[in-house]
Write a structure and sequence with these properties.
Distance between the termini: 10 Å
Largest sheet: 5 strands, parallel
Structural class: alpha/beta
Number of strands: 7
Strand content: 5-15%
CATH class of the largest domain: Alpha Beta
Radius of gyration: 17 Å
Number of domains: 2
Length: 204
């Protein structure tokens, strides 16, 4: 690995533990038979892409979700099932990040949405109290806020240009292979995190 000055981190599967199966199970139990066709870790249909890029509001998402799934689920039922995948932020990973950000310029780039954002910020508050999670990074890039998402190369280029980062000095860490592939193509150094490996196992 070449000299690294900058690190762009993914969020889910890196700092935040996720279990996609819990969301799928919750929707199945609620009567949604085709959720796996709509959303997985590796696939999102247009409804979820629109949510992740901030093109639709939470309320519009719930309405469109009911239409696509032909259900009459309440907003709260959809929200609860959608958030079921969000587990926890292991303390040791946050402590590790607090040390790493003293050595490198660190950034966060997450495919997420406002529903999940509100939920995992609440998890942080419950776990760490007044910790300013976003403040642990020079800047955070959440897909619903910037209108761009991985694995589109334009999303990576937006961050690199916004921060004026030298691409060969920048490392990208993610747990989804498609995102890693795009990052490699444009010249970023990469680490594909594969469970049970976590960020604290990395020699950085």
């Amino acid at each position: 690995m070449q000299l690294i000055k900058n690190i762009i981190f993914d969020l889910g599967g890196v700092f935040l533990n996720l279990n996609y199966q819990l969301t799928q199970d919750a929707f199945t139990q609620a009567g949604v038979k085709n959720f796996k066709e709509l959303f997985t870790q590796h696939h999102s249909n247009k409804l979820f892409i629109d949510l992740e890029t901030g093109k639709i509001t939470e309320e519009v998402f719930y309405d469109r979700f009911r239409k696509e799934t032909q259900t009459n689920l309440s907003d709260n039922t959809i929200k609860t099932a959608w958030n079921a995948m969000l587990l926890n932020f292991p303390t040791e990973r946050i402590e590790w990040l607090e040390q790493i950000n003293k050595k490198y310029n660190v950034f966060l780039f997450s495919n997420t949405n406002q529903i999940h954002y509100d939920a995992f910020m609440n998890i942080i508050k419950q776990t760490f109290g007044s910790l300013n999670f976003n403040g642990l990074f020079i800047k955070t890039y959440y897909s619903q806020q910037i209108g761009l998402r991985k694995p589109n190369k334009e999303a990576f280029e937006f961050i690199l240009n916004d921060q004026n980062l030298t691409i060969t000095e920048t490392l990208f860490i993610d747990d989804t292979l498609e995102n890693i592939k795009t990052a490699n193509k444009i010249g970023l150094q990469t680490i594909h995190l594969v469970a049970p490996q976590t960020v604290i196992d990395l020699n950085l």
